[in-house]
Amino acid sequence: MKTETDLTNVNVNMARRSFLRYAGVGVAGVGLLSVASSCHKDHNVVPTAGVTDVGSGDTGILNFAYALEQLEAAFYLQVVATPYTGIPSIELTYLTDIRDHEVCHREFFKAALGTSAIKGLTPDFSAIDFTSRTAVLGAAKVFEDLGVTAYDGIAYNIQNAAYLSIAGSIVSVEARHAALIGNLITQGNFVSSDQVDANGLNISNKPSAVLVGANTYLKTKVSANSFS
Description:
Blueprint: H1 16-23, H2 26-36, E1 51-53, H3 57-81, H4 89-113, H5 133-154, H6 161-185, H7 207-215, E2 221-223
Parallel strand pairs: 1-2
């Protein structure tokens, strides 16, 4: 099934208070909305034809996160709209909750970035069989693991303490998603061995590595040249 939805046109009606609760950003998120509205796009990055670059500095990091949240939101919107064959009601409930979280995260970054936000991205999920539980949960694991390693791999670059607080809150939600998906795939396995290092700590990935995976599912390709 090929999905070419414009993510900017997909909306889930959710009150702002509910959004903050679902996203796990709390009071700090309210401050970010007002602070980030003053950000401006970085014009020193040389664009690549046909590729959307996230920019640099804290704005670039927020746009990087926004790109990933767009992708995740689009995926779960599709999963819930066309549930896989024989899906148990409890699994549909779990995936619907994750969908709501990801849409909240997406809308949060979009609002926070304001005019500095990158454009809405168009996904391409043609490689995913949305009728298959194995395929859907396998893809969900890829997206959730990618999201956690992405936040862990770029958060140290954040300069604004408020942004760092937001990133920490959201990555904790993403980690819970990853644990749930892991348990659905293999009961009792909340984190796979490929996601932790020798010390049992979460691994991290640089933006360039994260985008290799993300761009596989995006028609609109994304780069993060300032963080390469």
